[in-house]
Design a protein that fits this description.
The protein is mainly alpha-helical. It has two domains: 57 residues, Multidrug-efflux Transporter Regulator, Chain: A, Domain 2, CATH 1.10.1660.10; 48 residues, no CATH class. It contains five helices and three strands; from the N terminus they run E-H-H-E-E-H-H-H. A three-stranded antiparallel beta sheet has the order 1-3-2. Strand 2 and strand 3 form a beta hairpin. Helix 1 crosses helix 2 and helix 4 runs antiparallel to helix 5. The radius of gyration is 25 Å and the shape is elongated. The N and C termini lie far apart (77 Å). This is MerR family transcriptional regulator. It holds the Pfam family MerR_1. Keywords: DNA-binding. It comes from Corynebacterium suedekumii. InterPro entries: DNA-bd_dom_put_sf, MerR-type_HTH_dom, MerR_fam.
Length: 126
């Protein structure tokens, strides 16, 4: 069985433009291109598209996906890319948590009324 760009796009929940872009960057190539210029995708390409979409949903960039799924890649490359991305996400989370803690320790006390010591004119606050 084969699917055209639009048929596959509809089934996969992506746009035809996305599939054409994946072809342009050589991430997902069609099984064949018909004499009419249509791209046709078979079951192997559909399985690859599912992996691409899963990795995109996990937050990997197209470049990282291309490296992980390249023609000379093996399953260990895909795992390594996911682990690297996970480490990056953990680093970002830690940085956000530190920033949040700093914000809470330096935030003004909402229950305390501002004073002249805070740089406010007490007469204007009444």
């Amino acid at each position: 069985m084969e699917w055209t760009v639009q048929e596959l796009a509809d089934r996969a929940g992506v746009s035809g433009r996305t599939l054409r872009h994946y072809h342009q960057i050589e991430l997902l190539t069609p099984d064949r291109i018909g004499s009419n210029g249509y791209r046709y995708y078979g079951p192997t390409a559909v399985a690859l598209l599912q992996r691409i979409l899963l990795l995109r949903e996990a937050g990997l960039s197209l470049a990282a996906i291309g490296e992980a799924l390249g023609s000379d890649a093996n399953p260990a490359d895909e795992i390594a890319a996911l682990e690297e991305h996970l480490a990056h996400l953990e680093h970002e989370r830690d940085a956000l948590e530190r920033r949040d803690r700093l914000g809470r320790t330096h935030a003004p006390d909402a229950t305390r009324r501002p004073t002249a010591a805070d740089g406010h004119d007490a007469r204007r606050l009444q």
